[in-house]
Amino acid sequence: MVVKYMRTAKQCEMLAWASAQIHCQFHASENRVALPAQGNKQDVQAESETVLIPSRGERGQCVLDTPPKILFCDLRLDPGESKTYSYSEVVPIDGPPSFRGQAVKYVYKLTIGCQRVNSPIKLLRVPFRVLVLQGMPEPPFPQDEEVCPSNPFLEEEEVSRRDSRPLERALDMLMVTTSRRYPHMFNITNMRGKVAKFCIFKTVYRLGEDIIGTFNFSEGDIPCLQYSVSLQSEEEIQQQYQRRPGQTPSVTGHGRHLESCLHTAFSHFSLPIPLNVTPGFSRDIVTLRWRLHFEFVTAREPMEPPTVLQNQSEVTVWAGAEHVDVDTFSWNLPIKVLPTNPALASYVSQFTGTNTITI
């Protein structure tokens, strides 16, 4: 934080105090979420008060806040003089991730409050993003063993110090979990018979990874004319908080691959997971899940492929049938989407922002 006196007058300026605090605001859609009634809570900051209320004037409920930290008190600035102050804080590990869904929102903000002598409090709110690592399985190795391959150029003290850091430890476990690959095979069938065999090499991914899958239509009995694969997130409100009984989850698409595959023996798709989406998580009010949504269009009758003679020298043009009786069906494959390294997630926004408060 940089405090600068911008006036050209010759008198000095006195600032009473400044403090910083992190808070998370929760907002729910009244059409989809039924929250328990709460009493009237005053969040209005009187001009004569000197107590910082970071969530003053914000929509929703404050579900998390850190203790305020004083940046300075009784600061005197001469004309043209500036002072710089630093602030650091640890976000509680039990907090929700940043999330902007159709039914609920979790928004993190850093609020800086400052007050001149005999003046009202001024607030500056800086939004930021929080990634939460949830649902990590127990490590398949003893806790006293290293997760990553040992580096002979690192001293033992440095290695033990690195393993003791929660962030590095979590990133190592995240890398191990999402790096395991072995083929998952699925037979795609409908009421008329087998359509194809589908193969995917893993079902746990990090933000920014590509989801790759392959189809083998040569083993199918039913001709497939077209298929599509969509990456979707499913936002489900817990039953006790649903506005209507049997309320369906909200589904959001994040990418789609569409391909025509008649007379195709093999096909594949690649869907990237955006860096700006929220990984799967579960709270007492909402649960976010991820899935691949498949849609297939198949023919009801066998369709013979065009025949090309071996000694034919001219180009053969094959015209498709004008009318085909088809069936359509869909299938959902659950997957897990986990966070990634915060340094990679920050690539979504490459610019440096500057926030200003005038008091």
From TrEMBL:
It comes from the Eukaryota. InterPro entries: Rgp1. It holds the Pfam family Rgp1. This is RAB6A-GEF complex partner protein 2 isoform X2.
